[in-house]
Amino acid sequence: MRSLKQWEAIALAAVVGCSRAPSGTLPAVPSSPAAANEVRSNGDAYVIRFTPTPDPIPLGQLFSLDVSVLDARTVPLPGKDVTLAVDARMPEHQHGMNVEPRVTPRGDGRFTVTGMEFHMAGRWEITFDVTRAGLTERAQVEKVLE
Predict the structure, then answer these.
(1) Domains within the chain, CATH numbers bracketed
(2) Can you tell me the distance from the alpha carbon of 74 to that of 37, in angstroms, rounded to the nearest whole number?
(3) From 80's CA, which of 11, 113, 115, 129 has a CA 20 to 30 Å away?
(4) Maximum CA pair distance of the chain?
(5) What distance in Å separates the CA atoms of residue 61 and residue 120, rounded to the nearest whole number?
(6) Over the chain, what is the mean pLDDT?
(7) Where are the beta strands (DSSP E) in the chain?
C-alpha cells in the first residue's frame, strides 16, 4: 500500500509530465518585446506583425500601427492582393474605441493604421481582419493599459 507522500509524488510527476513540451523542444515564449507584437490568424494562414507608435501604447492619446501581414511561413505577401481592417474593443465593457482607425496599404502586405486610441485603462483586444482572394481570416491580440 502506498503512503500519502508516494501518492503526492506520483500526482506531481503526472502534472509535470503533462505540462512539459514534447521531447527536444522548449515551450514557446516571446524572446523579445517585438515577439509580443506578433499574432497568428485564427485559421493559421497569416502572421501579423505590428509596431505601435508611440511604444508603449499611450492611454487616452492617438497612436498608429505599422503592420506587416505575412503568410504562415512568415514570407511577405506579394503585390496588392491583400486588404486589412483593424479595430479594437474592450470585451468586459462591451464597447470599442471612440474613433475609427484608417488603414492605408503600402504594398507587399504592409499597412499603416492611424487614428487608434485607447481612451480607458483596462484590457483591449485589437482585431486584424485579413482578406485575400475573397476570404477573410481574423487575428486578435490583447493589450492591457493601466
Answers:
(1) 31-145 (2.60.40.1930)
(2) 14
(3) 115
(4) 70
(5) 10
(6) 82
(7) 38-40, 46-53, 62-71, 82-90, 95-96, 102-107, 110-117, 122-132, 135-145
